[in-house]
């Protein structure tokens, strides 16, 4: 991320204030954390609920699976686009104001998503929702870091515990709504939550000190989006090669654009000191390994969460509600182990927790990929999802701190990069998988192969992560 989205902690000291006073936790910090946590919960509800509805969306809107998957990936792409803008807007207008506006916009866009009538409209609304969520995250990180002061490491690590609550409620809520109503209601649940958050945030949040906003790297952001979107189009078209003579030509053209834009982006990062993703945060001091780890980590955990309900429905003919319960098992596993991981971080350091957690996720992915042995598909997949969740709970807080402690003066920038790389991995996983399933004559078997591939990629990530410098205590 650019310089404009970095260094939210320690906060800048007002004149006459000692560093100790600046780092003291704010009296309302816990209430502030609740407000910010519920905003992240709303985001998690939205993502996991939509994952349970991919087959229903395709049938209702007349779209094949390759394009229906864009309802997940378009949101992630919008989030990546908005992360650097969120930091700049927070510096320019204040993180409190930006956070509240982002929450309000996300709620309004959820309402717009609920009333769409074709897949193109829905993809556009989902992209805009991702932008609102991406703006929200840097502001939320800065607000929590400011209010918790010297306890910021634990507070930020606890963000890992917030998303699983949405992962519990989202699939169940999505499954119930799909059973008794329609997919439109999945988006409507965000509206009352968002309105309450705006009111509560207006009353409770205080404004962190601002940094002078610097120029936004518009060219770098445009190159990132050109790379992501053209790659998504190319992958989607590859899943439709047999549906028209122009599909191979268009897929090759989109692929060429993706390669060219990616090369231009790397060149831009090397030659511009204020690039949206500066080269100093891409390599050196263990950051290069951590960035690669985050891409593969996101490929596995986001890909698994987005595809598991679809896999359960296509391979084992489970109903949407039963498929949603599987993500609940994953979320319960995450909650059970994430609080333990947060408590152990200062004692063990992040590397042991990261490696053990990734190993547990690999076991869960392998179990999901193979047929059930001696039990029903629901129980078998629930065990696999629970193991994946337990692994995420162990590895998540560790991965969050692994990059931030390397450059503590760039907490927000590293946070944004972590989210960007994980979402990029998730976009790749969902795009490739939905295209493969759409083109396959046996989508269920293809889904099992996808999970096997994800397990292999995460094993490689664990090997790379074993070289990350370990650190105990506070950072």
Automatic annotation (TrEMBL):
<dbReference type="InterPro" id="IPR020846">
    <property type="entry name" value="MFS_dom"/>
</dbReference>
<feature type="transmembrane region" description="Helical">
    <location>
        <begin position="128"/>
        <end position="148"/>
    </location>
</feature>
<feature type="transmembrane region" description="Helical">
    <location>
        <begin position="187"/>
        <end position="206"/>
    </location>
</feature>
<feature type="domain" description="Major facilitator superfamily (MFS) profile">
    <location>
        <begin position="32"/>
        <end position="473"/>
    </location>
</feature>
<feature type="transmembrane region" description="Helical">
    <location>
        <begin position="318"/>
        <end position="345"/>
    </location>
</feature>
<keyword id="KW-0813">Transport</keyword>
<keyword id="KW-0812">Transmembrane</keyword>
<feature type="transmembrane region" description="Helical">
    <location>
        <begin position="65"/>
        <end position="86"/>
    </location>
</feature>
<keyword id="KW-0472">Membrane</keyword>
<feature type="region of interest" description="Disordered">
    <location>
        <begin position="1"/>
        <end position="23"/>
    </location>
</feature>
<dbReference type="InterPro" id="IPR036259">
    <property type="entry name" value="MFS_trans_sf"/>
</dbReference>
<feature type="transmembrane region" description="Helical">
    <location>
        <begin position="218"/>
        <end position="240"/>
    </location>
</feature>
<feature type="transmembrane region" description="Helical">
    <location>
        <begin position="445"/>
        <end position="465"/>
    </location>
</feature>
<protein>
    <recommendedName>
        <fullName>Major facilitator superfamily (MFS) profile domain-containing protein</fullName>
    </recommendedName>
</protein>
<feature type="transmembrane region" description="Helical">
    <location>
        <begin position="287"/>
        <end position="312"/>
    </location>
</feature>
<keyword id="KW-1133">Transmembrane helix</keyword>
<keyword id="KW-1003">Cell membrane</keyword>
<feature type="transmembrane region" description="Helical">
    <location>
        <begin position="155"/>
        <end position="181"/>
    </location>
</feature>
<dbReference type="InterPro" id="IPR011701">
    <property type="entry name" value="MFS"/>
</dbReference>
<feature type="transmembrane region" description="Helical">
    <location>
        <begin position="98"/>
        <end position="116"/>
    </location>
</feature>
<feature type="transmembrane region" description="Helical">
    <location>
        <begin position="246"/>
        <end position="266"/>
    </location>
</feature>
<feature type="transmembrane region" description="Helical">
    <location>
        <begin position="30"/>
        <end position="45"/>
    </location>
</feature>
<feature type="transmembrane region" description="Helical">
    <location>
        <begin position="352"/>
        <end position="373"/>
    </location>
</feature>
<dbReference type="Pfam" id="PF07690">
    <property type="entry name" value="MFS_1"/>
</dbReference>
């Amino acid at each position: 991320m650019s310089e404009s989205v970095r260094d939210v902690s320690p906060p800048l000291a007002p004149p006459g204030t000692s560093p100790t006073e600046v780092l003291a936790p704010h009296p309302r910090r816990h209430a502030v954390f609740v407000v910010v946590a519920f905003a992240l919960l709303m985001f998690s509800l939205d993502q996991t609920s939509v994952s349970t509805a991919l087959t229903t969306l395709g049938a209702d809107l007349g779209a094949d699976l390759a394009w229906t998957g864009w309802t997940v990936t378009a949101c992630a792409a919008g989030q990546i686009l908005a992360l650097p803008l969120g930091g700049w807007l927070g510096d320019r207008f204040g993180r409190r104001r930006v956070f509240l506006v982002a929450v309000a916009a996300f709620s309004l866009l959820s309402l717009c998503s609920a009333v769409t009538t074709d897949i193109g409209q829905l993809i556009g609304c989902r992209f805009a929702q991702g932008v609102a969520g991406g703006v929200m995250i840097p502001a939320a990180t800065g607000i929590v870091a400011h209010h918790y002061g010297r306890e910021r490491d634990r507070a930020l690590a606890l963000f890992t515990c917030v998303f699983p609550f949405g992962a519990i409620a989202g699939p169940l809520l999505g499954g119930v709504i799909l059973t008794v109503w329609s997919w439109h209601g999945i988006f409507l649940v965000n509206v009352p939550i968002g309105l309450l958050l705006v009111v509560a945030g207006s009353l409770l949040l205080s404004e962190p000190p601002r940094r002078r906003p610097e120029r936004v790297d518009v060219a770098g952001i445009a190159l990132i989006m050109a790379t992501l979107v053209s790659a998504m189009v190319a992958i989607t078209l590859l899943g439709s090669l047999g549906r028209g003579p122009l599909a191979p030509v268009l897929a090759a053209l989109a692929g060429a654009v993706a390669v060219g834009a990616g090369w231009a982006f790397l060149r831009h990062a090397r030659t511009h000191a204020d690039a949206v993703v500066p080269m100093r945060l891409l390599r050196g001091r263990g950051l290069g390994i951590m960035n690669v780890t985050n891409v593969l980590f996101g490929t596995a955990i986001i890909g698994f969460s987005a595809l598991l309900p679809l896999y359960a429905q296509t391979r084992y003919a489970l109903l949407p509600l039963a498929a949603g319960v599987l993500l609940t098992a994953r979320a319960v596993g995450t909650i059970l182990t994430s609080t333990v991981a947060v408590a152990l971080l200062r004692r063990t350091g992040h590397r042991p927790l990261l490696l053990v957690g990734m190993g547990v996720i690999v076991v869960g992915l392998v179990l999901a990929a193979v047929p059930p042995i001696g039990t029903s598909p629901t129980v078998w997949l629930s065990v696999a999802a629970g193991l994946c969740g337990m692994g995420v709970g162990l590895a998540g807080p560790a991965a969050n701190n692994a990059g931030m402690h390397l450059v503590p003066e760039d907490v927000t920038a590293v946070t944004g990069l972590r989210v960007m790389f994980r979402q990029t991995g998730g976009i790749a996983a969902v795009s490739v998988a939905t295209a493969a399933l759409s083109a396959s004559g046996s989508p269920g078997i293809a889904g099992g192969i996808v999970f096997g591939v994800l397990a292999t990629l995460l094993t490689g990530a664990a090997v790379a992560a074993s070289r990350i410098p370990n650190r105990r205590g506070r950072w």
